[in-house]
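Researcher: Please translate sequence to structure tokens.
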Amino acid sequence: MNIVPSYIPNLDDILEGGFIKPSVVLVAGAAGSGKTTFAAQSLFNAAKSGETCLFISTLSEPPAMINSYMSRFSFFDNKLYESNKMNMVSISEALLKEGHDAVLEFINKKISLLKPSRIVIDPLTVLGDILKSFEGRPVSDDERRGFYFDLFTSMKSWNTLVIITGEFMLDDLRKSVVGYLADGIIYISEETVGMRVERNLRVLKMRGQKYVSGKHSLDIRESGIVIFPRLLPQVGDRKPASSVKVSTGIPGLDKMLKGGIPDDDIVLISGTTGTGKTTFGLHFICDGLSKGENALIISMEERPPKLLRNSRTFGMNLQPYIDKKMLDILYVSPISYRPDEEALIIKAKIKENNVKRILFDGIENLETAIPDNIERKNYITVLLDLFSSMGVTTAVTSEISELFGAVKLTHEALSSIVDNIILLRHVEIEGRIHGVLSILKSRGIQHDKEIREFEITEKGIDVKSAMKGYESVLSGSARKTPADVFRETFGEKH
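Model: Translation complete:
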């Protein structure tokens, strides 16, 4: 027994190495889910690596028809047939009429002749359903069960990796003898998430080996099946918490934070629309870039050209850093955001570019990509923890829906995840709108408790003095304190 590659991108990470050989693996799912593509891709790529492979079609379709379908994928290579590394046979209708024994004899003869190291039977369920139907009667459960036992006995004697496909739903697998006999079960499903349909892969069973359970995102592309393993919590020892502080790029805010944000921390910049959340985040990024630290901006709202234009408006020119490969801007639409895939892309960018600072702009848009509240919270928790574990200091922006009124964070769950929370608000004072900020949370460090006014100028954010003489400022409608009203009315002497 040994471990062999699946030749499906990223699947071996889920299987912790690959498939056990010899074994029989069932790839199950509804019609059109990608089962045949999965099996053929594994076979063709194995053949390219020097293995002798056999594809057995049970649909009475000629090999030319099957190859015509597979030729649209880049893994297909017709030359593999010429070298006999790839072999394909189709079980004819005439052979099916001869019954179970004839079909098993035909398959065994082909295997004895070719001695393949990897075999696909596609789909298995057809054999079980139609062999006896030529006698003009339905197939009984006992007959179907007997055939499957005989077939699996043969397959386990071949000393190969056998991938079988079948149209099974989850409930079917629990009742079917095939699910019991197979060494491994991979289930491909489709579900509607928000405005899109997503394919997912789950390993339900893999006898004799460990695997990563749960749903993993799957996509079918020109290259074939691509799998994106779900993001897992980081395990292992962490480096000690740093005492070094990172500047926000805004002197007045650094002063409020008693020097800045602790290295590797996560800071949430939350506020209503137009308060300057992105601008605050860009200051943080530009400060790092000016000190030679590579950075990544993940934007779910503004595309790169608009982000670059707006940053120049406030005295921050990001283009030179992009040209120097110090800054990367990743724009992802909330509608097309695929959580597992994007996590892999972001992780790769952090590694490749030695990223030290990240701005995740508009994280509240993940509500569109991940409608389920628990799944979304878990995803954000693990993603932000990944950033910290990789030595990245992160700024996250999130919008509050209420322009004026009681403060309520859009992502209440974020408050327990992040280390620091900076709240930005619009406040109306004597008929004029002012911007104010306060630090609601700064884990483990002292910070300024005052509410301060700020302005956005052509040079960016300018934090001003504390809001003296007013109360209910964070409600959006400030009013003078009773003491100030008294002094204005009666003068200081009273």
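Researcher: Any highlights?
Model: The chain has two domains: 2-228, 245-485.
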